[in-house]
Design goal:
Order of helices and strands: HEHEHHEHHEHHEHHH
Largest sheet: 5 strands, parallel
Number of helices: 11
Radius of gyration: 19 Å
Distance between the termini: 28 Å
Number of strands: 5
Shape: elongated
Strand content: 5-15%
Structural class: alpha/beta
Length: 208
């Protein structure tokens, strides 16, 4: 669904890709859980044919590098610094962007500098996706923080977003405007909760 955050995520990725040579090419897209950041990132990855990885809480630096290389179709070989070189070379050669989702896990593990190493070795556009506190937490790494070109923030879902979601995922019933407004209030900005509630509304209406 063409929600606001889908468009916003694509816009910030485009900003990094088109950044002049004298400016950094790392950008950030953050916000509260449920705002649809990961879906927006997936759409953006498809649109720009970018490499996309979603970090896990258990990942080490090596696990991140191996996951990126897997997305690139490259076999990970050698120590960590060799893997960084492999990734940097591939990004520079293909001129593709890199999207790192759930970046918060790398921040918690103090693995931020490995991303800076990739950027310095490739000068590739890099989009970081994370929770709302990630920009503040990255202040602990000044050399990294200073290389972020733009900090974009995911917006809460509004009534227009709920209508769009209903047209995609709630096609068997028509939802009146007053129920759209009530649903918008109830979800508190969460796209995920909107989808859940629309599904419940449809099932309840069909059952009645």
């Amino acid at each position: 669904a063409p929600l606001k955050n889908v468009a916003l995520c694509a816009k910030v990725m485009e900003r990094a890709i088109n950044s002049p040579s004298h400016l950094p090419r790392i950008v950030s897209f953050t916000g509260h859980s449920g705002y649809g950041k990961s879906w927006s990132a997936a759409v953006t990855a498809n649109k720009f044919k970018a490499y996309y990885v979603e970090c896990k809480s258990s990942w080490t630096k090596r696990a991140l590098l191996e996951a990126i290389l897997l997305q690139m179709g490259i076999t990970a070989q050698g120590p960590v610094y060799k893997l960084v070189d492999q990734i940097s070379e591939q990004l520079a050669k293909t001129e593709k962007a890199l999207i790192i989702d759930e970046m918060d896990h790398l921040v918690k593990r103090s693995a931020v500098e490995i991303v800076r190493d990739i950027y310095e070795g490739s000068n590739a556009p890099i989009l970081l996706i994370g929770e709302e506190n990630m920009p503040r937490n990255l202040n602990n790494w000044e050399r990294f923080h200073g290389r972020v070109l733009e900090w974009a923030y995911a917006q809460p879902a509004d009534a227009q977003d709920v209508k769009l979601l209903a047209s995609f995922y709630c096609k068997r019933v028509k939802i009146r405007e007053d129920l759209i407004q009530e649903t918008t209030k109830a979800i508190k900005g969460s796209v995920r909760r909107a989808c859940v509630n629309l599904d419940r509304i449809e099932k309840k209406a069909l059952g009645m």
